[in-house]
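User: quick one, fold this
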Amino acid sequence: MVDYVKIKAKAGRGGDGAVSFQRLRGRPYGPADGGDGGDGGSIYLVVSKDLTTLIPYRYKKNFEAENGLRGGKNHKKGKTGEKLLLPVPPGTRVMDAEERLFADLTGIGEKVMVAKGGRGGRGNMHIKKSEISKKEARHWFEPGEEGQEIELILELKLLADVGLIGLPNAGKSTLLSKLTAATPKIASYPFTTIEPNLGVMHHKGREVVLADIPGLIEGASKGKGLGDQFLRHAERTKILVHLVSIESDDPTGDLKAVNKELKKYSPELANKPQIYLLTKIDIVDLEIFKNKVSHIKKQRIKILPISSSTGDGLVQLKDEIIEITS
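Assistant:
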């Protein structure tokens, strides 16, 4: 998934003003009638419903808008350069080269100008005879201004109500497929998911967007396992659904390890409401199940046992998600 890119945008240069004189019988130079140059085209970022990643900017990094054209005779203004619209997906944060926030684009059709086109120069129709000699008037015009040039960082943070988090192979992708119509890649080995997946859950007349955040590991907040790239997608969520597998030797340790990485990455992210799930309860016998649940409860952690395979606990999970996100 392409969710972080750097690009350069250069707006169009303004057209030069024109040098032109009316032709009058018996006079080499009549009144000046050179028109103004056209303004250069500006560059805009616009949110597109047809994009979900920043893939259009994976290889093409430099963008230039059209220049304005030179003015013409008979007071004719030069053509304005065409503006350049660069589409981005909903949830795109725009920053300058120093990573200062420029814009946060979330709504379809939302648009922001990132580079303004240069102003066209004035033609010699503007000169005042009292301020300039006849000789100078034959060559006087204003050049067009250069368009703005800027380096931008585009960072995509998925727009989701719920983020599914947990260590690799905790069952996030399977749960997403059961709660929504999403079809993420699923297998019984770690790191099956290498990019976030989105799905829409319908329950009690509500629509809730869920994001499967790829498996986090110790050191994720510092980039280990690409964790810092994945964690940004959990920042916009309202709640986190935190999964831990019943196969784990230390479920509470796993939960605390992930929460530790959340806190290191962003205290705000760590303070989001969480629903804790003990997953894959259908693969162990009753005695092991009771022991694991008892151990977790002793740590004063409220946890909901579920099985994505059998559906146990999923209705209660949906109810809790709706209640918290409402």
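User: anything notable?
Assistant: The first strand starts at residue 4 and ends at 10.
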